[in-house]
């Protein structure tokens, strides 16, 4: 709600990719250069292999008044700065799927010519979509393994939670809703209390109770080590994509 839809101009090669923008009231075009002519804040949301061609196309139109934000996975600030005119204010952003319900987790890093003003502008705009933090660029691939891919880990865990309840006799629809609310409530407590997860976990456990018996089974299944391995594998793959 911070930017009127009519102030946004989106460009894509096909109408199919622009339908959602039109439905939201945004203006659309098939000309990337038109976006540069009419906008000062420009988001580059392309596949990584497409981005160099787009940068080559728009390079003549990029001026000192533009702020360019890349959302392309694996394309470094160094590459962006090399392919754009010297002195361009460039930032690199990585988001995740829950941004579509305004509960995303985003990190960004700024290039050498982007200052505090550009960073504050980006953070202010994106805070409407969830958590937004400025980080060193080296953290962006870690964010991909933790949060970008991590959403899928949570969906898998939610599915397993609900299936456990179904196994014990609860209807599937109800089990799915309760599993989702359980994850939402646990995450909200983490964010609002600022407590370490281990402390909150300890507060749920009572001596000889249900939770400690359940946690014992999760430990036997090496849940923590497996999740840590998943984050490591996804981070390493993100690094490999950056090298390709």
Question: How would you characterize this protein structure?
Answer:
- The structure is a single chain.
- The protein is α/β, with parallel strands linked by helices and 244 residues long.
- The protein has 11 helices and 7 strands.
- It has 2 domains: 5-137, Rossmann fold; 149-242, ProC C-terminal domain-like fold (Orthogonal Bundle).
- The strands form 2 sheets. It has a 5-stranded mixed beta sheet with strand order 3-4-5-6-7, with helices on both faces.
- Helix 5 links the parallel strand 6 (104-110) and strand 7 (130-134).
- Helix 7 packs across helix 8.
Fold topology:
Layout: E1 9-11, H1 19-23, E2 27-29, H2 32-38, E3 41-44, H3 51-58, E4 67-70, H4 77-83, E5 89-94, E6 104-110, H5 116-126, E7 130-134, H6 140-148, H7 150-167, H8 172-193, H9 197-204, H10 210-220, H11 223-243
Parallel strand pairs: 1-2, 3-4, 4-5, 6-7
Antiparallel strand pairs: 5-6
Helix pairs in contact: 6-11, 7-8
Largest sheet: 5 strands, mixed
Structural class call reads alpha/beta
General form: elongated
- Unreliable spans: none
Q: In what range is the share of β-strand residues?
A: 5-15%
What is the percent of helical residues? 40-55%
Fourth CATH level, the homologous superfamily of the largest domain: NAD(P)-binding Rossmann-like Domain
Q: Could you name the CATH class of the largest domain?
A: Alpha Beta
Instruction: Enumerate how many helices there are, as a single number.
Output: 11
CATH architectural group of the largest domain: 3-Layer(aba) Sandwich
The gyration radius over C-alpha positions equals 22 Å
Distance between the termini: 38 Å
Strand order across the largest sheet: 3-4-5-6-7
Any idea of the CATH topology of the largest domain? Rossmann fold
Instruction: Indicate how many domains the architecture comprises.
Output: 2
**Count of beta strands:** 7
GO cellular component, one term: cytoplasm
Domain Pyrroline-5-carboxylate reductase dimerisation: 137-238
Binding site for NADPH: 32
EC number: 1.5.1.2
